[in-house]
Amino acid sequence: MTEKLTQRRRQNDNKHPSNLNNDQINEKVVAATKKRKPTRNNASPKESFLLKIKSPIRLSIFLIMSIVVLFYLCKILIGFVSTEHTNVPINLPKLVNINEATPDRFWGTYRSNLYFGLKHQSSKSLSVGFMWFDYGTLQRSNDRFLRHGCDQNDQLKYGWTYHDGERFGIEDIKDNNLDLNIQWIKQLSGQHGGDWTTRINVTPK
Fold first, then answer.
1. Among 84, 86, 155, 192, which residue carries the largest CB count within 10 Å?
2. d(Cα 203, Cα 205) in Å, to the nearest integer?
């Protein structure tokens, strides 16, 4: 009996240190995994931010918001640059100084985009133009038949026959059913850049 008891004690003694070794190994493994994979509670602010945007939906929202912020920042920067560099007045003499004596070329046919147009050399110019239409053609067609701005589709023959660039000009315009003769003359008098007169002769075909 005594021999059996001693053998059992030896077996129990041998099992006890092995259990201790297993517990120590398990504790080391748990500590290593904690170091490698930090939990959300123990993670640093940078790691927690990355964990928050880990999902595809959050990542897409984050990218869209960053693009919008960059767009508005670029827009503000471009507006600042444009206002800083383009709205600076040029230190050059003006084309026409209203306070000085009126020049000879203050009034003139300076509206080249019209069949006939007058204006003066000022920032707030009074613009004068000439427009016409043929009533018979207007009744037969639903299209707008108004002559004012130069258009190749009108298929008109027009041009200045005489013009000195300052005081007078004569223009001939040949429409489909009309011949127009425009005479313009300017007299250098008064305080408004001269007095001008226009006479328009219309001859139906």
1. 192
2. 7
DSSP reduced 3-state for 122: coil
Place of tokens 């503000």: 76
- What are the pLDDT digits (tens) for 142-173? 666 788 999 888 889 999 999 998 889 999 99
Residue that wins the pLDDT comparison between 160 and 55:
160
Give dist(CA 59, CA 47) in Å, integer.
15
Alpha carbon dihedral 23, 27, 32, 38, in 10-degree steps, equals 140
Cα 184–Cα 177–Cα 145 angle in degrees, nearest 5 = 85
| Distance in angstroms (rounded) separating the CA atoms of residues 51 and 62 | 13
Cα–Cα distance for residue pair 23/17, rounded to 1 Å? 10
Q: pTM of the prediction?
A: 0.49
Q: Which amino acid is at 160?
A: W
**What is the pLDDT averaged over residues 20-41?**
56
User: Smallest Cα–Cα separation from 109: which of 95, 123, 130?
Assistant: 130
**In this structure, are residues 41 and 48 in contact, taking their beta carbons and an 8 Å threshold?**
no
Helices (H), the chain: 2-36, 45-52, 56-85, 135-140
